[in-house]
Amino acid sequence: MADLEHFKQKLMALKDDLTQRVSAIDKDIKHEGMSSNWTEQATERENDEVLESLGNASEQELVMIDNALKRIDSGEYFSCSACGEDIPSARLELLPFSAHCVNCADKI
Ligand SMILES: [Zn+2]
């Protein structure tokens, strides 16, 4: 059995990282001083869209990390949530928040 605690630490570190990234993005979106120049405002709006999609991706990842942490607590971390087969720890090493074995991830 691979070391649960090791993956838990990994997930917590990832979560910290992402939480910081998300709050940095939020801060960027709510620019403190809006530009008075219209062209600059348009550019800022485009940037906001990019930032927002970045933020959404990070938030989705955070949800996956939270789910993985729950799976650790419930002892299901090493089982594929689709077929119940073991997820190889080499895969979890690369994708610690993955809830599926390679076969099932391919089908999704
Ligand atoms: Zn599977």
Describe this structure in words.
By secondary structure, the protein is an all-alpha fold. The protein has one domain: Four Helix Bundle (Hemerythrin (Met), subunit A). Helix content is 69%, strand content 0%. The protein is built from four helices and no strands. The chain has helices spanning 4-29, 38-73, 89-94, 102-107. Helix 1 (4-29) runs antiparallel to helix 2 (38-73). The chain is elongated, with a radius of gyration of 18 Å. The model has no long low-confidence stretch (mean pLDDT 89). Bound molecules: zinc ion (ZN).
What are the SSEs and their pairings?
Layout: H1 4-29, H2 38-73, H3 89-94, H4 102-107
Helix pairs in contact: 1-2
The protein binds zinc ion.
Strand content: under 5%
Task: Please state the structural category.
Answer: mainly alpha
Largest sheet: none
Number of discrete helical segments: 4
Helicity range:
55-70%
User: What is the H/E string?
Assistant: HHHH
| CATH topology-level name | Four Helix Bundle (Hemerythrin (Met), subunit A)
Identify the CATH architecture.
Answer: Up-down Bundle
Q: What Rg is obtained from the alpha carbons, in whole angstroms?
A: 18 Å
Roughly how many Å apart are the termini?
27 Å
Average pLDDT for all residues: 89
Number of domains: 1
Uncertain stretches of 5 or more adjacent residues: none
Principal-axis shape equals: elongated
CATH superfamily: DksA, coiled-coil domain
Record field, number of beta strands: 0
Bound molecules: zinc ion
- For the record, what CATH class applies? Mainly Alpha
